[in-house]
Amino acid sequence: MAVAEPRQLDALCVAFVEDDPATRQALSLLVAGTPGLRCVAAWGSVEEALQRRPMEAPAVILLDIGLPGVSGAEGVEPLRARYPQAVVVMLTVFEDEEEIFTSLCHGACGYLIKNTHPARLLEAIREAADGGAPMSPGIARKVVRFFRGAAPADRVEAQLSHQEVTLLALLAGGESYATAAAAMGVSVNSVRGYVRSVYEKLHVHTKSAAVAKALKAGLI
């Protein structure tokens, strides 16, 4: 009869959300074979992660973006609500700026590309658990370029109307155009007009970029 290995009581608990079985298994084996880390769950979708809670709560969740059903970017907030003690790090093949900023605005603490060297990936897991924000170099450059182009708070505040700032705050909180319109007492067409105006004033092209710029300026 095989004797079970003693559990590492102080091990860092890690979970993955990855739809590719081979990648999911490789990540699980990497973590399971690393002293001080323990893989507590390897889910195939955000929906499964929300439904099947592991015996031990994860401290770090590595989340793919290109998932069936709920995407990784959309899944950050519900996963953080389900596992409030966990930090979420995106692990994906995508370097699309909208996906990056959507994920970060929704609460992801880091963003890594899947070809990250295993040693760096393990380092990033510990870094995230310690309060860091691990990012692949190409992603970090995109983030730095974005914030270098962000207007100072006083300039942004002077550019935006009260209605536009209110709308950005609602969108940052997850409201849709329809629910934001209802909360502001205006039509959906008016909301779309505000959005176009915000894009022009802030020199952005996506909702997530507008929200990120307003957050950086301390307006919302």
If you had to describe this structure to a student in words, what would you say it looks like?
With about 220 residues, the chain is an alpha/beta fold. It folds into two domains: about 10-145, Rossmann fold; about 150-215, Arc Repressor Mutant, subunit A. The chain is about 50% helix and about 10% strand. It has helices at about 20-30, 45-50, 70-80, 95-105, 120-130, 135-150, 155-160, 160-170, 175-185, 190-200, 205-215; strands at about 10-15, 35-45, 60-65, 85-90, 110-115. The protein has a five-stranded parallel β-sheet, with helices on both faces. β4 (about 85-90), α4 and β5 (about 110-115) form a beta-alpha-beta unit. The protein is elongated and about 55 Å long.
